[in-house]
Amino acid sequence: MSKLDHKKVKEVIKEIFGSNKVSEFVSFASSVNTLWQYEINDEKYMIKILTLPTLNFTL
Question: Model pTM?
Fold first, then answer.
């Protein structure tokens, strides 16, 4: 996931939790799943984001 995608996810998390205090403290990434840990209002959460890999076809 790109930094722009990350920023969008962070904005959605702020909207869901109704808090301006959302800080990323650990980020893990792989080809299909992305794990992010956030601190929201002094509590830690882990969010798993499923992403689709880019498929390249050759004809």
Answer: 0.48
